Amino acid sequence: MSSCAIVILNYNGEEMLKTFLPSVCMHSRYDVWVIDNASTDGSIDFLNANYPQIQQIKLEENFGYAGGYNAGLAEIQGQYDYYILLNSDVEVTSDWDLNLITWMKTHPDYAALQPKILSWKEKDTFDYAGAGGGFLDAYGYPYCRGRIWDTIEKDSGKYDDTIDVDWASGACMVVNASVFHQLSGFDPDFFAHMEEIDLCWRMRRSGWKIGYIGSVEVFHLGGATLDRASPKKMYLNIRNSLSMIYKNEASSRFFRIFVVKSLLEHLAAMSFVTQGKKEFSNAVLDAYRDFKVKKKTIEKFRPQLEGREEISRKGKVELVFWNWKVLGKKRFDQL
């Protein structure tokens, strides 16, 4: 069995591949794979002509991020100890993959790991997706060191450490291959967005740890699939967040969280109407409607502890939005 496969998911990403594959091929030690989600552009022809050394898995339809990775990784299951899941719009740096896998090999109680993720456009600034390590507040809202809601910090070196986090970013994350498959991978119903947070939550509930290593840097373009400010992304984030919390929290705890989230997000929907952004208001309402329909078929996650201890909620930030919007705490070190 080989140590690692670097696996890039592609859907109509020919231009991204042209821009970012050169750094991946230049700086990577391990096998590189592309899972193609039934692209209709010139992605496959470009790979065949320019990167015959990259192995391909061609899917028959677009399964999204979650389903695409699940289907593709199932085809190489058993061949690798680790997968590095890498967005097609990420530039990597020297020895990035070797350093990530070396760390994982020396820390066998970790199921996932992410590097420091900086912006490709402004390389002294953190990226929105993952930044300096991801956390969840007590109501399941994600935030990062280096990024709280839309406030993004410059990289001053203070997140060059190595710490435990709540979740690793799907833009660039190492996962233990056997743990990934034992937990059935990503939830395919998510399609895209929040699926890596859900997976990391299930990993932690099964007694595994999630790590962040700031000595390894990558640069993420972001927004290559959906712009951060798109109604579609808002819909997926809200719907999938509700599903994730429902799966991973006790029913009584979920009810309390649901009441708070529902109040905040329906107030946001009303605000969008007054701003003339009805499409965003509809995204919120559609997300709640579809979650309620889907809820009947969602199974509660039951931890696979195998002698490990389940995670504790102790020390969590209560509500990161309140800290950011009302109390004016814009940086992680202010929380």
TrEMBL record:
PANTHER family on file: GALACTOFURANOSYLTRANSFERASE GLFT2, RHAMNOSYLTRANSFERASE WBBL
Keyword Transferase recorded: yes
GO molecular function, one term: glycosyltransferase activity
Oxidoreductase among keywords: no
Similarity field: Belongs to the glycosyltransferase 2 family.
Name of the protein described by the UniProt record: Glycosyltransferase 2-like domain-containing protein
Domain Glycosyltransferase 2-like residues, every copy: 6-113
Keywords noted in UniProt: Glycosyltransferase, Transferase
Entry superkingdom: Bacteria
Pfam families with a match to the protein in the record: Glycos_transf_2
